[in-house]
């Protein structure tokens, strides 16, 4: 308790100096890079899923007895539309509730939408869930934020370089794997594979990822100290637990 109070000044709760171990900037280099690698791999999976169904579109149209040549284009482009909308939703939510809950919620939804895509009974249902899959893409929205949480500005070059490579790998291998898989097992297995891989990384992230948003970390610390000290006037340097602003120490 005494050590934690070092971060409390004039009723304002902050970190305990520049070496505070609860500050994500001070976490171990090994852990930081494990987070970067995990986020990068999830980004690869997402970009992989974007184009993996492209070689399977003839099978999809045949099964749903559709000859509309627009549908193959829509199946890919509707995902991109979803991504554009999803970023506008996910990024602000991560500022309100923290990176971790938004990350897990969006990833679970991504897996569920992949499952429903695999179980689609008509082309319109498949297109709808492709769109929702794009909306639930969280890695692309939170990747830069998580890196900025973990690394000071002068050390973000290498992590950003690694995460920039990840989106380029998916589109390269996705059509190849999608083509072989759809021919061997059918087009629905394209979506099942995405579900399995994304689900595996989500389970891994449950054990690896911690909250990296400094504002959220300090607000949780403030709530804990309020309870322990019985002082409801304590406030985080970034604002109270409900988000009202105060001066930053």
TrEMBL record:
<feature type="transmembrane region" description="Helical">
    <location>
        <begin position="127"/>
        <end position="147"/>
    </location>
</feature>
<protein>
    <recommendedName>
        <fullName>Major facilitator superfamily (MFS) profile domain-containing protein</fullName>
    </recommendedName>
</protein>
<dbReference type="Pfam" id="PF07690">
    <property type="entry name" value="MFS_1"/>
</dbReference>
<keyword id="KW-0472">Membrane</keyword>
<feature type="transmembrane region" description="Helical">
    <location>
        <begin position="69"/>
        <end position="90"/>
    </location>
</feature>
<feature type="region of interest" description="Disordered">
    <location>
        <begin position="1"/>
        <end position="21"/>
    </location>
</feature>
<dbReference type="InterPro" id="IPR011701">
    <property type="entry name" value="MFS"/>
</dbReference>
<dbReference type="InterPro" id="IPR020846">
    <property type="entry name" value="MFS_dom"/>
</dbReference>
<dbReference type="GO" id="GO:0022857">
    <property type="term" value="F:transmembrane transporter activity"/>
</dbReference>
<feature type="transmembrane region" description="Helical">
    <location>
        <begin position="159"/>
        <end position="177"/>
    </location>
</feature>
<feature type="transmembrane region" description="Helical">
    <location>
        <begin position="35"/>
        <end position="57"/>
    </location>
</feature>
<keyword id="KW-0812">Transmembrane</keyword>
<dbReference type="InterPro" id="IPR036259">
    <property type="entry name" value="MFS_trans_sf"/>
</dbReference>
<feature type="transmembrane region" description="Helical">
    <location>
        <begin position="189"/>
        <end position="209"/>
    </location>
</feature>
<dbReference type="GO" id="GO:0016020">
    <property type="term" value="C:membrane"/>
</dbReference>
<feature type="domain" description="Major facilitator superfamily (MFS) profile">
    <location>
        <begin position="33"/>
        <end position="249"/>
    </location>
</feature>
<keyword id="KW-1133">Transmembrane helix</keyword>
<feature type="transmembrane region" description="Helical">
    <location>
        <begin position="102"/>
        <end position="121"/>
    </location>
</feature>
